[in-house]
Every structure is written in structure tokens, then in C-alpha cells.
Amino acid sequence: MHKPLFAFFLLVSTVVSAQNLSSFKVNLAAGYATPTERGNKDGSSPGFLYSIEPQYGFMNHFELGVRFEQAFIQRPEVLGNAIYFESQAKSTMSGVLTLNYVVGKSKAFRPYVGGGAGFYRIAQSEQQVIGASGTALYYPLPVTNKWGALVRAGVKVFRFNVEAAFNILEDTAVTNEITNAKLIAKNEYFSVKAGYTFGGN
Hints:
- Helix content is 9%, strand content 60%.
- The chain is built from 1 helix and 14 strands; from the N terminus they run H-E-E-E-E-E-E-E-E-E-E-E-E-E-E.
- The strands form 3 sheets. It has an 8-stranded antiparallel barrel. A 4-stranded antiparallel β-sheet has the order 5-4-13-12, with no helix packed on it.
- It is mostly beta strands and 201 residues long.
């Protein structure tokens, strides 16, 4: 097992060195994330996030990449815009195709703006309410598999970077057949993180 894995990495490193792929790089980052719709008593909570983003730089100012991210946050889940629940879903995962525009050429300080679109996934969640007759009413939110988008802005200082991003994602909702009441999960979130880029120019 270890020998084939070592041989694979040796082969990759040899090919990369031979081709001098100076335009390819990988950004690793971690930081803070919070649901965008968050109050003092809405059951949501912020948390830690991490990401890995392979990128390809071209024309001195553009970066094309794929951002893989997991944010350990709890979204707000609201019943009838009145009752707030703590979500059973503990994180949001995503894979997003991204494009950045980097301003300037100095490696010491380069602001950038970017955006992207991709796939987001959030685990299922279920809430229960006791009705007037004492009957339990269930609101099972399904697994969220949705297309979403992001916009972001940041700054690069040599190989380090700091950025803020807004992840745009439709709500997840379920309607109880008995009461016709709707439980809505607010999926959008905001993040601030710091990272380091390996490889590239």
C-alpha cells in the first residue's frame, strides 16, 4: 500500500518539476463562518471553517480554481416566521468553481475580488412541535443538495491572504400536511478566513 502511494507521489513530483508548472498553486485556509440571518434567539450558531482551493493563474491577473470548503455552522430553522429551532445539521460542505481578478503586480500587496458557482450540501434535519390536541407534528427537512454562488474580496501579502466571502444559497423548506405550516432553513452564510498559497509564482 505504501510503496504504490510513494511511487505515485514521486511520479507526480517528477512530472511537475519537468513541466515547470509555475502557474498551478494550492491555497489552504481556515477561519470563521456565520449564518447571514442570525439573531440572539434564533437557534443558529457560528463556527470554524476550512478550505482547500487548487488554482491556475493566467494573464498575470486571473486565477481559476475549485474551492472545496466545510463550514461548521448551524443554520437557523424557522417555523411560520415565529418559532426558531436549533438545526440538527452541523455543517455545510461545498465544491465551487471560482474566478478571481487580482489587482496589481506587486507580490507584497495585491487586492483581489472574485466569484463562483457550484454545489452545496447540508445534512438533513427534523423538528417536532406538539399541537393543540397533544399530537406531535413533524417537519423533516431533507438533505440539501443545491447549486449556489459566492462573491468575495480579499488581499494577498506575499503568499498569505485574508478574504471575506458571502455564500448565496436558496432556503430549504418543508410543509406539514396537517397544519400547512412551513419550516424554512436559512442556508446562506458569511465567512472571514486567512490562508497560505503553496506553489505558483
